[in-house]
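Project standup — Tuesday

K.O.: blocked on the structure for the chain from last sprint. Re-posting the sequence here as requested.
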Amino acid sequence: MKRVFSQALKELNQFRRDRLTMALAFVLPLAVLLIYGYAIRLEAKNIPLSIQDFDDSFLSRTYVERLFATNQFVFTPTVGRDPTSALDQGIAKATVIIPPDFERQIKLHQPVTVQTLIDGTDVNNARVIQNSLRATTQFFLRSSNLVPEQARSPIRPQVRLWFNPGRREALYIVPGIFGVILWVFPSMLAAIALVREKEQGTLVQVYASDLSAVEWLLGKELAYLLVGLGEALVVMTVATVLFGLRLRGDPTPLLVGLVIYLAAAVAFGLLVGARAGNQTGAVQGTAIAGFLTALLLSGFIYRLENIPFPLSLLSNVIPARYFIVITRDAFVRGTGWVGVWYAPLAIALIGGFFFRTATRILHRMQFAD
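H.V.: unblocked you, prediction finished:
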């Protein structure tokens, strides 16, 4: 163990003297946190909506006001009298056309046809607009007592939001960002450090010494695990201040899972560094195999159930998938070990596979002709 600690101390000294690596370790993660934390919004808001009100009555104006009272739409002027002009020019995402006899037919309890044209280029956005317009119309009819009593539904659901009643998107997005940042940057630093040994020729000295491949990799693992813990402390502290995150319930699953996850990230970086021939290849390897999978196949943005086969099988071996479960539980749900007990075990198994594979590669290199 003494040789492992000596190797770790050497790595930390080299890391401390390299300002570019220091910036890569602490400045870029904060930049990614700010960009993703403020830029990603999954809830559709500020949707441009144009109105053609051919009735211009009290009820029609009240209906229009109710549409914009949801704070989901913003008013966009129509272009001429053609209802499709605003959609064709990309000015509006939807157009609501109110017929001239809107108020009269409602007061006579006759059905009224209100036409809505929706831009279906973005299917998800179109579905959100459709559902919002339907819900707002039903609310308008109920609140204005325009629906006959016998036509009202006998079932009135009372909906309550748990864990995030204020529907703050930061509580969902930012804990997911932790899984991406703390996977990409520690692995990238470890990969660059190992490849640098190859380029400078110091790896040959290691081969000539009595230091085994396991001891050498354990030294790097320990060093960059400590660096990763420093990154996690900085990133989570800034996120707590800027986005108002607070721990919910038992914090031990997060603490245990964080250490295991960072160890797995460093092991992945060592594996990439053992296979890469230069620093450019190491960066590209961690960016493609690490960043893209952690971003797209972890459930950070897209639901895991929506990932098509066979990529859905690959998502089962992405450690970020399990760590995001831990972080979102720690900062949103707060169920503790009962809800996330399997996640640290899965991360440990995958990380152990990465480290074992990197050890075998270096061992073969050491005794190759």
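K.O.: great, moving the ticket to review. The longest helix spans residues 170-200. Strands lie at 47-53, 73-75, 94-98, 115-118.
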